[in-house]
Amino acid sequence: MPSPSSPTDTPAVADLLNDLQHQLAVFARRAEQTRLAGAGQMRNTMDRAAYLLLNRLEQHGPTGVKALAAGMGIDSSTVTRQVAPLVDGGLVKRATHPEDGRAVVLELTPLGRARLHEVQDSRRELVARLTSDWTPMERATFCTLLTRFNTSVSQANAGQQEGRQPGRQDGEETGERDGLDGPRDGGG
Fold first, then answer.
1. Is the dihedral of CA 106, 108, 111, 115 positive or negative?
2. What integer pLDDT is reported at residue 166 of this predicted model?
3. Taking Cα atoms as reference points, which of 31, 30, 49, 51 lies closest to residue 118?
4. What predicted TM-score, i.e. pTM, was given to this entire model?
5. Burial letters for 77-86: b for 16+ Cβ neighbours within 10 Å, e otherwise?
6. What is the pLDDT of residues 81-133, one digit of tens each?
């Protein structure tokens, strides 16, 4: 927290931070609306939790629930709850851990990989359209800054979660919460 005489307390900085927090709230709202609108046939076909779980499994391969939860910054019970419909839908399967036959890992099925790629293609097309008048440098800068911001949010949430009570469910991926503007029916 800045000291009372900190340069971040100047009216110009306070106004900029106020504008930034408001734009983040608007962004969160618009991002969800855009996800729901989507592009092509894959619009609104996969919620954020499913997308993030499938993407993580594709990037990291077969993973145990605890490792998946730790990597995503959510509780194991949340992963278990979120992955159940993915298993039921044939997108994820439970398999025996290759090194420990007693343990179970989650892995992407061929159907899950295909669906993930369809959704990624749709979302990539949408982002391309939304940023069609941006230069490649502007896209790269935005991606770098957004990644940096998400990392900061993740680190802040990890620090807050260290003191939380065991068994409390988080329900959102760290840094992915779209409630920056408060309740869902809030402004933006």
1. positive
2. 45
3. 51
4. 0.70
5. ebbeebbeeb
6. 999 999 999 999 998 877 777 788 999 999 999 999 998 888 888 889 999 99
How does 126-153 read in b/e, with b if 16+ C-beta sit within 10 Å? beeeeeeeeeeeeeeeeeeeeeeeeeeb
pLDDT band with cut points at 50, 70 and 90 for residue 169:
very low
d(CA 87, CA 107): 10
The residue that leads in pLDDT, 99 or 62, is 62
User: Strand pairing partners for 93?
Assistant: 107
Q: Tell me which residue of 15, 19, 36, 70 sits closest to 178, measured CA to CA.
A: 36
Which residue reads 């993740």 in tokens? Answer: 154
Token pair for 5? 């005489």
User: Which DSSP string corresponds to the chain?
Assistant: ---TT-GGGSHHHHHHHHHHHHHHHHHHHHHHHHHHH-SGGGTT-S-HHHHHHHHHHHHH-SB-HHHHHHHHTS-HHHHHHHHHHHHHTTSEEEEE-SS-TTSEEEEE-HHHHHHHHHHHHHHHHHHHHHTTTS-HHHHHHHHHHHHHHHHHHHHHHHHHHTTSPTT----S-TT----TTSSTTS--
Structure tokens at 124: 């990539």
